[in-house]
Design brief:
There is one protein chain. By secondary structure, this protein is mostly helical. It has one domain: LysM domain (Membrane-bound Lytic Murein Transglycosylase D, Chain A, Roll), CATH 3.10.350.10. It contains five helices and two strands; from the N terminus they run ααβαααβ. It has a two-stranded antiparallel sheet. The longest helix is centred in the N-terminal third of the chain and has 37 residues.
């Protein structure tokens, strides 16, 4: 009985560490894409994404996710460039979740006006 408990605890710990590692990799990749899009240092890219607050930005549209949509495609449709998808993700993170690559059909996201410093 004790061996099963120890095994279960070790498994849960390993799964938790793996989830944390995945989250760090996703965050790192997101920052690299934002940096490449704007040619910023990693710290500048992180700051730029955090500076935008929902209350300070005009909503220009709402978009219902359909089969085949990606944040890159949506970014290109509304902003003319796929490179602004981290901005869309960050703005809609409460609806989309932590992974910008997983968006569910039927989800409605808000399309904020792109701030001048991101154009």
């Amino acid at each position: 009985m004790d061996e099963k408990k120890v095994f279960r605890e070790n498994k849960e710990e390993a799964e938790s560490k793996a989830a944390e590692d995945r989250k760090k990799r996703v965050e790192s990749a997101r920052l690299k894409r934002a940096q490449a899009a704007r040619k910023l240092s990693p710290d500048e890219a992180k700051r730029a994404l955090k500076q935008t607050r929902k209350g300070e930005i005009e909503i220009i549209a709402e978009h219902e996710i359909v089969m085949g949509d990606t944040l890159s495609h949506i970014s290109k449709k509304y902003y003319g460039s796929a490179y602004h998808y981290p901005f869309l993700h960050e703005f809609n993170k409460d609806v989309i979740g932590d992974d910008p690559n997983v968006i569910k059909v039927g989800t409605v996201i808000k399309i904020p006006k792109l701030p001048d410093d991101k154009k």
